[in-house]
Amino acid sequence: MYVSKLEKSIGIEAYATSSPGIGGVIRQHIEDFKVEELLVDGSKAEINPKNLKRKVLGSSEKINHYLLCILVKRRWDNLLAVKAIAQQLNINSNRIDIAGIKDTRALTAQFITIEDISKEELEKLKVKELKLYPIGYIRNKISSYFLYGNSFHVKIRKITHSKSEIKKRLKHVLKELKEIGGAPNFFGHQRFGTRRPITHLVGKALIKGNFKKAAMLFLAEPGGYENPESRESRKFLKETLNFKQALKIFPKKLFYERLMLKHLSKKPKDFLGAFKRLPLKLRRLFPQAYQAYLFNKFLSNRIKRKVTLKKAEIGDYAVNVDLSGLPTPKNYKITNEKTFVEVNRAILAGKMFPAIPLIGFKQKLSQGIQGEIERQILEEENVSPENFKIKEMPEISLRGNLRTILTPIENFTINELSKDAANPSKNMVELTFQLQRGSYATVVLRELMKPRNLLTAGF
């Protein structure tokens, strides 16, 4: 099965299914890709909220420490959206919290909390393509602890196959995924950037202590699919290392790059200091992206070696599932000869999931076949778990964790299969499905579509 060079560059090297895909394009229009957040108490952040007086996480009208809201945004990066809200409200962005990061190239709805602010103060908020709907006050700020997952509503357009062929192909891929037990839990394309997939490369340079390389990758490595203005400004910096002049020509929309350039134009050798100008949440994304890349490589090689995904082999980790159905990575067992039957019985009953390490300085590798895969890849990459302890920036060090091999696909529905009005002579299909937190819709969609060119397919 053909896998694009771009996918291989982010560690996704295999498909879990062998049935042909339907092709097509996602995100021809932003409204073609909708994401609505789901909390563990069953609440949904709706794009068009109908009932703003409902109780969410015990919210009430009685004024408390945090105001819970639904944030609906279109084409907004999460960090920049929080910054824009904070600026309009004239507060520190640290007073705004979210449960989960959402796709930028989408129409999304999510829960956020704002510390010590009233509903009345929100009325002055006016930001293009961004809207806040206050629900009520709660005692604790929102965090990933309260997040169950996301509901996706996706239109796949420009499909050249007939309706009957689309239906047949979807049926075959879905049957395979069901037999496997879900979709492979790869970190999706947006985790790395499809137009300029360098986030993980910056992360690798950071954990290796090469701050100059990390900075020049982030600032000056041009993306083949960026707009010409951004590409040319990066190219200029790469060729000249002239930070002062680069600051003059870098587009205003490259906000974070300009923050670093301001520092480097005054202290051209202080690359570590330049990174410290970035928000902590953004800095953490770089080593996390490299951690995600390694996970993708581990899982890809498991698939390529035809090692089972739905069962635990000797040496595999298996994590418990909590009452809401979410995996709990801190509660795990290592599968050995004694626990093999017990662990796999629990996996079959939906009480455990097989898992693979997210590398960090405290996380031990798997044993058995999976452990061999992990050691081989770390050797090829010339990194070790200890590298994730970054003494120059301890605040972005990663202890490591476990991540499930598969993610369940819940409430999958084909809503509509019809002619594509936006593309005469082509067909379209409209799908809804749910995924647990930390899992990516694009990973499910790639199995269904089998795209040959990720960028023209809208990924």
Give keywords.
Hypothetical Protein Yqey, Chain: A, domain1, eight-stranded mixed β-sheet, 33% helix, Pseudouridine synthase, alpha+beta, 459 residues, Alpha-Beta Plaits
Mean pLDDT: 95
Distance between the termini: 18 Å
Radius of gyration: 23 Å
* Record field, number of beta strands: 14
Q: Kindly report the name of the CATH homologous superfamily of the domain at 281-404.
A: TruD, catalytic domain
Describe the structure.
With 459 residues, the chain is of the alpha+beta class. Among the domains are: 33-149, Alpha-Beta Plaits; 204-278, Hypothetical Protein Yqey, Chain: A, domain1; 281-404, TruD, catalytic domain (Pseudouridine synthase). The chain has helices at 5-9, 78-89, 119-122, 163-180, 199-207, 211-220, 228-240, 243-249, 255-266, 271-275, 280-304, 340-348, 368-381, 441-449, and strands at 33-39, 66-74, 96-98, 107-115, 130-138, 147-159, 183-184, 317-321, 327-334, 352-358, 401-404, 406-407, 410-419, 427-436. Strands 1, 2, 3, 4, 5, 6, 13 and 14 form an 8-stranded mixed beta sheet that branches. A 4-stranded antiparallel beta sheet has the order 9-8-10-11. A two-stranded antiparallel ribbon has the order 7-12. It is globular and about 60 Å long. The model has no long low-confidence stretch (mean pLDDT 95).
